[in-house]
Amino acid sequence: MIAKIRSQEAAKTPGEADLIARIDQLLTELAPEITERPISVTWRPMRERWGSCTSVDRSIRISDRLKLAPDYALDYVLFHEAIHLQYFDHGSEFTDVLARFEDSELASAYLDGYEAAERAMLPPLELEKL
Ligand SMILES: [Zn+2]
Predict the structure, then answer these.
(1) Ligand 1 mean position to 74 CA, how many Å?
(2) Ligand 1 centroid vs 87 CA: distance in angstroms?
């Protein structure tokens, strides 16, 4: 039974090639002016951030908390990090491109809600450090 659930989860979790393909699709559809593509997109056990991008070696890391997230939330983070291939900070050029993502409000609400739930589950001593 557990093995069956695990294999279903594995089937639902996009692999790194899938993540690269999704970024390619998002950039092609929403930001055709960005021609850079990531060389690697990897899942990482990140607790403080949803994703990060190093433009120098074109690598993107995505928090494994998003493995079972709805597509719009994962795509939003992928798109955000992919824009950083071209724009390093969160200036107006960056936010103009990010605003083209249709479900950005829904995705932000999901991510904020997830973080709020995580904080609510922390023991009080951990919470004081935040
Ligand atoms: Zn960013």
Answers:
(1) 14
(2) 9
